[in-house]
Amino acid sequence: MTLLEAYRRLDDAWGPQHWWPGESVLEIMVGAVLTQNTAWSNVERAIANLKAAGTLSMQALLALPLDELAALIRPAGYFNVKARRLRALLEWVWEAGGVEALSGWTDEKLRSGLLGVHGVGPETADDILLYAFGRPVFVIDAYTRRILGRLGLIDPTMGYEHLRAVIADRSLPGRNMSIGKVTIAASGARPRPETAFFMTPTKSVRVSVTVGMPSVSILAAARPQAVAQEPQAALPTITASTPLFFTSAAVSSVGISTLPWG
Length: 262
Known about the structure:
Layout: H1 3-14, H2 25-34, H3 40-52, H4 58-63, H5 66-72, H6 79-95, H7 98-102, H8 107-115, H9 122-132, H10 142-150, H11 160-168, H12 174-187, E1 194-199, E2 203-211, E3 217-219, E4 227-228, E5 243-245, E6 251-260
Antiparallel strand pairs: 1-2, 1-4, 2-6, 3-5
């Protein structure tokens, strides 16, 4: 399976899901900072606090004392650090002429400017580029490494910029792929893969898998009939070179090893 084939399967299975949640460019940028090292549910609580306090606007956030801002975003964790980072980002946006002015910048200039802001790393910058400004970039996050690594399409230990270049070279549409991978990871692509066993009359084949990927094929070195014990799935007759498709449980493999029968 190629990277583009994986993308197409994701797009066919889930399609656009209108990620990133946010009612404005400003809200998306705020969320991109607050989501660093925390779950999105915590970010939602922090943003709800900002809305309830009537401070989710550029002018209000810039006028808010740092300690008050930190208190409002406390649910997102590391609130003192994130308050300073958020303030730095908003001051940069303001000094650059606001969102409208930034919208006229090239992708390269906008990304370079974002990376120059205190607390904005490559992933946060790409989040803002893609979701706030609609630029065709691919965000490299933990889900990217987990899913594509298990499909054998990338080396998940690659550095951010190296991996970003590899994916950009495949000309994938950033927005839909990013949406799909969030759905997959949230629905079952856990940090540690689950394991399934496939038995034949002469040998068993052990396959490490992760539930959540629709119709992902793997190569199984087994013969005639195979029966899946976990997860449950209807499997076809296979040979040593036949792609094995999981259509009900749907998995992605990270390795196959054969074991003697018995």
